[in-house]
Design a protein that fits this description.
Low-confidence stretches: none
Radius of gyration: 19 Å
Strand order of the largest sheet: 1-2-3-18-8-20-5-4
CATH class: Alpha Beta
Number of strands: 20
Protein name: TauD/TfdA family dioxygenase
GO molecular function, one term: metal ion binding
Oligomer: single chain
Mean pLDDT: 93
Helix content: 25-40%
Order of helices and strands: EEHEHEEEEEEEEHHEHHEEEEHEEEEH
Keywords: Dioxygenase, Iron, Metal-binding, Oxidoreductase
Distance between the termini: 28 Å
Largest sheet: 8 strands, mixed
Pfam families: TauD (PF02668)
Family: Belongs to the TfdA dioxygenase family.
CATH topology: Double-stranded beta-helix
CATH superfamily: Clavaminate synthase-like
Shape: globular
Strand content: 25-35%
CATH architecture: 4-Layer Sandwich
Number of domains: 1
Length: about 290
């Protein structure tokens, strides 16, 4: 197994590992450490079925089953289908692009550790891949914050709300999303998360506060909270923290939700087909391993 860093703020390729085969414990540990160090890792030239994708992903924690999403691999509800392809008038999967910058499940008490995506069909135009996935480095963003702001926010939490993201998506041009019902909002209540937290693999502080879901700094008046959040969101999206993954067919892409925020780029048309299968790894295992090592 060879780890090839991108040379950028985030990213590395791992070569020589066949994800269709069970991981040894040594390889699992090496992948986990690489993910903590590089934030985003890709495994090129993989050939996986849904069961193999699920087995690889589950080596790092419990897999989410999204009961509200019907776009799942038959027989494998942990494997979500992301696609803009329509067959006989029915969408093949959930269209995932254009969601703006966020961290998956920061709105939930049960935090997400990693996403694992397998690219099957990638749209291209003039030979160039479309639908890239962008990331920003939250360890670097934390390190560069003014010291007085780090001290001010050291013990602070922020409220994260799924409805903030939902309403943002409803305002998008052409969106037909209805508002969340009272029942849906009851099932996804706002939660408080630390603005800074220690990464469970590296032990480094990261900025855990994203534009998609964070809406208020707890215990702070709204005007001051809005001012600080605006600064944090602009700060973390600086170009120097960014990394863009250009997809190729048969890529497996894995990223760390503690140390990064991400954005799916919607630069392709309905006629330019995209098909990706996805597993979301919850943080139960990585947090337990961190606690055991402490």
């Amino acid at each position: 197994m060879q780890i090839v860093p991108s040379g950028e703020s985030l990213g590395a390729r791992i070569i020589g590992l066949d994800l269709s085969q069970p991981l040894s414990e040594a390889d699992r540990h090496a992948v986990k450490q690489a993910l903590g160090r590089h934030g985003v890792i890709s495994f090129p030239d993989q050939t996986l079925d849904a069961a193999e994708l699920k087995r690889f992903s589950s080596a790092f924690g419990t897999l989410e089953i999204n009961v509200a999403n019907s776009y799942q691999e038959p027989g494998h509800p942990e494997v979500m289908i992301l696609s803009n392809i329509v067959v006989d008038g029915k969408p093949l999967g959930l269209a995932d692009a254009g969601q703006d910058w966020h961290t998956d499940m920061s709105y939930s008490k049960e935090m997400a550790f990693a996403n694992v995506l397998y690219g099957i069909e990638i749209p291209r135009r003039n030979g160039e891949p479309l639908g890239c996935t962008e990331f920003c480095n939250m360890r670097a963003a934390y390190l560069d914050l003014p010291e007085e702001l780090k001290e001010k926010l050291a013990a602070k939490t922020a409220t994260h709300d799924f409805n903030k993201f939902w309403e943002t998506m409803r305002r998008e041009k052409g969106s037909k999303r209805p508002p969340l019902t009272d029942e849906q909002r009851r099932k996804k209540p706002p939660v408080s998360q630390p603005i800074f937290l220690r990464h469970p693999i590296t032990g480094d502080f990261v900025l855990y506060c994203n534009p998609g879901y964070a809406e208020r700094i707890d215990g702070m008046d709204k005007a001051e909270s809005d001012e600080i959040l605006t600064f944090l969101f602009q700060h973390q999206l600086q170009e120097k923290y960014r990394y863009r993954h250009r997809w190729s067919e048969n890529d497996v892409l894995m990223w760390d939700n503690f140390g990064t925020i991400h954005n799916a780029v919607a630069d392709y048309t309905p006629e330019e087909h995209r098909l990706i299968k996805r597993c979301q790894v919850m943080a139960d295992q990585v947090l337990a391993e961190a606690a055991q090592a402490a």
